[in-house]
Amino acid sequence: MARWVLGFASVVGVAMAAPPEVPKTFGPGDLFVSQRGDDAWSGNIPEPNAGRTDGPLRTLEGARDRLRARQTPAGRPVSVWLAPGVHERSVPFELDERDSGTATAPVIYRSLPGGRARLVGGRVLPAAAAQPVTDPAILARIIDPAARPQIRQIDLGQLGITDYGAMRARGFRRPYVNPGLEVFIDGTPLELARWPNEGTVPIGKVLDAGSVPRNGDFSDRGGVFEFDYDRPRLWTQANDLWLSGLFGVGYADDTIRVASIDLEKHTIAMAQAHMYGIKSGHGWQAYYALNLLEEIDRPGEYFLDRQSGILYFYPPAGTAREIAVSLLDEPLVCLEGASHVILDDLTLEMARGMGVYIERGEGCIVGGCELRNLGTVGVCIGRGIAPLPVYAHEGTGEPVSRQLGSWHEHIYQNPAYNREGGSSHLVVGCDIYQTGAGGVSLGGGDRVSLTPAGNVVRNCHIHHFNRLDRSYKAAVNIDGCGNRIEHCFIHDCPNNAIYLHGNDHVIEYNDIRHTCLKADDMGSFYMGRDPSEAGNVIRYNLWYRNGSDLSSSFCDIYFDDGACGVEVLGNIFVGSKGWASVFVHGGTYHTITNNLFVDCGRALRLSMWDEKRWADWLKGGLIASRLHQHVHIDQPPYREHYPRLAGIGEDPATRDANRLVGNILVGAREVSAGRATVENNLNLERDPGFASPADLDFSLPADSEVYGKVPGFLPIPEREIGLRLDGWRRSLPLAEPVILPTDGVLLPGETIRVGYRGEGAVLRYTLDGFLPDAASPVVQNPLPVKDKDVLTVRAFRPDGSEAGTPVAVTVRCILPQHPLRSSPDGWTGTRQILAFQGVNVAQEIGHCDNGDWVSFGPFDFDLAKIVGIEAEVGIDPNYARQKTHLRLDAPDGPTVATVTWESTGSFHVFKTQRFDLAAVQGTHVLYWYFAGTNGICNLRKFRFLTAQP
Q1: Are 523 and 493 in contact (CB under 8 A)?
Q2: Of 388, 452, 663, 914, which sits with the fewest C-beta atoms within 10 Å of its C-beta?
Q3: How confident is the model over 233-267, as pLDDT tens digits?
Q4: pTM of the predicted structure, to 2 decimals
Q5: Where would I find the H helices in 385-531?
Q6: Are 398 and 384 in contact (CB under 8 A)?
Q7: Taking the CA of residue 276 as centre, how many other CA atoms within 13 Å lie in the half-sphere pointing to its CB?
């Protein structure tokens, strides 16, 4: 197995040297920093002496300057030890070339043993400053009477805090922006008061889409749309109202200001444009309102009155030990030109911007740190771009340090942008969470010369990020050349886990779960629109239950718009229910080999363009410039490094050059869809003998017959996947329990089983929807569940304390042939399709043209007296009054109903329509046969009706 791994490491040409050993004890030349110190003291001892004539230094700058003043390097590692507790920062801690160590003698900034030092980019407020709200006018504005006595206020001005920042539009193709002042209680960020408290409300009829910057209209005219609720009548005193959601396409979130609300016409006018113009009709085209004093009605919400300087908040349950606000707009730590500097075992938090910024230099390490409650990213390696002056999808800006700004927009137009990210930098063993706009921005390396940087994100736990921005701000945004993401645990985010630009990157041994939870047309991993971004490898990762309930237009790995040349090797995909586990849109030269697909709809889907579209795409201005101007694929070093890419425009085999070879599938509806070379793949109906699927252990015994059926298939090193203990990560997070089946749906004869991919925990459960406690029963498989039980499982430590996140499912015992119980909710949709011809299957059944059909079942109509059908459809008014025939057992079988569809307003506006069904007896497959012209309807789902619906 080691030989297999090393063979592919040579592809990217990056030697992965081990990080230097970090001494665990005090050494000569070490310095100490404490809140009780003084920069006039020597800094040679950790506590003040009895006479307070000597002791630790007071500030990081004091320690840095002492090290600078030394005439010769120490010749061994030197540490600056920070006392545990809060070290408030009003300016960045800046290090440059003068502060460098060497590969064998790094300079280390670290926490003293016994507790973690916290670099805080804000102020911890005195608890006594929080007082009950007594102003009757303020109390009257708060809608919920029960919440009014719970609200507290703090006069920030009286505490000398007057810089509140500003709310600014943020989201897809907008610059990274700091959010202004935020509030944190006991390490948890509070949320701007919003309505509704959970979920969103749909965008109503669009009266004016507003200007569309994507089409070149930069006038920034806001759109206008209708709403059908009365809540805004209670917001008439709000003067800075914002909406946040998906306003156009499902991969482009936005937070934009409201200009006005017309209470009589029930319309909302926006003050700013959305990139694609405002649209409605899809379930994910929805929003929530925020920044409303009126809506503080649950623990953890706040509102800041920027005119009066008064902060209003509803405290979380329990005693608030620490109330803090963020103030620092710049990064907490800036390493600019510094080499071999280590940040070890620190917490960096509560800044409005990023945690650590690294530019140029070599061999710096952010190790074993906690980066949380930040306004943008945890770590940024490489320069950004100053915000563009106009809201545009792409543009050329000015390189800038210490911020990301319009990096996304600039790199679209300047894909070979060298961010000067230095080399061999390492982010390792860190916990990164509750950040505003992604986890790590990993740049470095030069795309023109294919010079690798060797910068790495390793063994990091990145989760619950994207508090503020949700699109394309991934756990790791990787770009440049020759960088790596390895052994990370990434989970729980609304959009991407990994977003890639550049060449020769390696993504390996990562555990990626529950990502893209609020997205459409998106992948957990995403890259696209540049065939020259070649040489990337995605191997030995676990992709587990990613995707959104909002849409089935999803995949784990998304090669979009002509992306080329990626190797997908030895991955484990579990539960991919969207397009496919891997989706190729237009590109070529991808190889998908030796992977395992479990409970996935299909392994690979290809949406391949015809020869003319492909040729036109390669010759078009955007792609031609990326292939022959920003880099040169037909000249060295590209021609030698990617010889096949050099002939991409003339290669006659391009359309068949994607390869799905030597993979194992279990329970897939089909192996692949679309044109590719598909060979030597095994699709099994049942578990072939996995060691323990409930514990996410899909290893097979050495003598498994599977190996004989897929010659050359090698065991996947799954025990190497995910986090591991080492010198930087001293403990592992308690994993969440795994419930199988994950959706709680049981077929006859199946049982619920609970597993745990970890150690040192006791699993307890309830069946009534309440959280388990230390007295709840211990899980023993199989669990005694029945239909409609709400199973909740939680891990507990041996001492009885709660650990990790509880998981829950509602049990649904279904009978596949029962017309009313053949699906978990009684509705039949795309997941229950038996076969189809001509139609397009995504979130709904679309492109239903004359002669197309789709079938479901078989159903045993003797089990219920069916009198009709209710269908949820989208019908354009120009295509209304067309027919669909429901037939038995064949597309031309006996007709039991004919429906004439009425307009719903649009193909994307879904409404239910009912019609009668002739009496049917016996067991039959039900065919929907579409008759008319083209564009007959979009069918989302249907259900059978009985005499008493």
Answers
A1: no
A2: 914
A3: 999 999 999 999 999 999 999 999 999 999 999 99
A4: 0.87
A5: 407-413
A6: no
A7: 14
